Amino acid sequence: MHSFDESDLTSEKSLWDVYKLSRRIVPSRLQVLFVLGSFLALAANSFIFSSNVQVIIDDVRKWSEMGFSFAITILGFLIAGFTIFSTLSKPKMMLAMMDHINKETGLPTLKYNFFAFMKVFIAYIAFLLFYAFILLFGQSGGLLSNIVQYVPNSDCVKSVVVNIAYAITGSSFVYLLLLLKSFVFNIYAIVMNMLRWEYHQE
Q1: Is the residue at 5 inside a domain?
Q2: Contacts with 85 (C-beta within 8 Å, 6 or more apart), sequence order
Q3: Quick check: 82 and 117 in contact, CB under 8 A?
Q4: Cβ distance 35 to 178 under 8 Å?
Q5: Hey, CA dihedral for 179, 43, 49, 163, is it positive or negative?
Q6: Please, are residues 108 and 101 in contact by the beta-carbon 8 Å criterion?
Q7: Whose CA is closest to 107, among 189, 168, 18, 181?
Q8: Who has greater pLDDT, 17 or 88?
Q9: Dist CA 46 CA 56 (whole Å)
Q10: How many domains does the chain fold into?
C-alpha cells in the first residue's frame, strides 16, 4: 500500500501547474551570481560604455538567432534523452519515491526529481519564445521599430529597450548553459538513486 492518493500522480493539468510547483526548487547561489553578474556586466556595457545603439541592436538580433538555433537543438536532445530515461525507469521505484517527501521543498521525491527536469524544459521553451519574438518583430522595419516611432521620446525609449534586451539576451546564454549543467547532474544523481534502490531490494 502507498501513502499517497493515485490522483496525486496526475494533479498537474498543464505545464503552468508544473512550473508553479517547480519554483520551489531554488537555484544555487553560484548559479544566481553567475547569471546576475553577466546581466549587470552586459547592462553596464550597453548603458555606459557603448554609445552606438545600432551596434547593440545588431548584437541583439545576431544573438537571438544564435540562441534560437542553440536552444531548439539542445531542447530536442534533452527531450529525447529524458524520454528514453523515463521509459527505462522502474515503476515500483518511482512509486516508492512518490511515498517519500523531499524536506527542502515539501514535494514528493518523485515530483521533485521530475520537476527538476521540467524546469529546464520550461526555461528553454520560454527563451525560445523570447528569441522568436525578437526575430519576428525586432528586425529592421519590423513591428517594434514601427511602434517605437510613435512613442514620445522615441530615441530614448528605443535606447532603453534595446539595452535591456541586449543584457537579457546575453545573460540568457549563461543561464541556459548552467541549466544544462544541472540537467546532466540530475541524470547522474537519479541513476545513482536507482542503483541504490536496487541494492536495497537485493
Answers
A1: no
A2: 187, 190
A3: yes
A4: yes
A5: positive
A6: yes
A7: 18
A8: 17
A9: 7
A10: 1
Q: How far apart are CA 161 and CA 149, in angstroms?
A: 13
Residue 177 has pLDDT above 90, yes or no: yes
The answer for residues whose C-beta is within 8 angstroms of residue 190's C-beta and 6 or more apart is 85, 113
pTM across the whole model: 0.90
For the chain, helix (H) and strand (E) counts, in that order, are: 7, 0
**Residue 40 has what pLDDT?**
96
Q: Which domain holds residue 168?
A: 28-201
CB contact set of 115 (below 8 Å; sequence gap of 6+): 18, 21, 22, 24, 25, 107
In-domain check, residue 19: no
The one-letter code for the residue type at 74 is: I
Cell of 187: 541524470
Residue 42 lies in a domain: yes
Cell 551596434, located at residue: 55
Report d(CA 70, CA 126) in Å as an integer. Answer: 13
Beta-bridge mates of residue 108: 101
Q: Is the pLDDT of residue 42 over 90?
A: yes
Any domain includes 8: no
Q: What is the pLDDT of residue 176?
A: 95
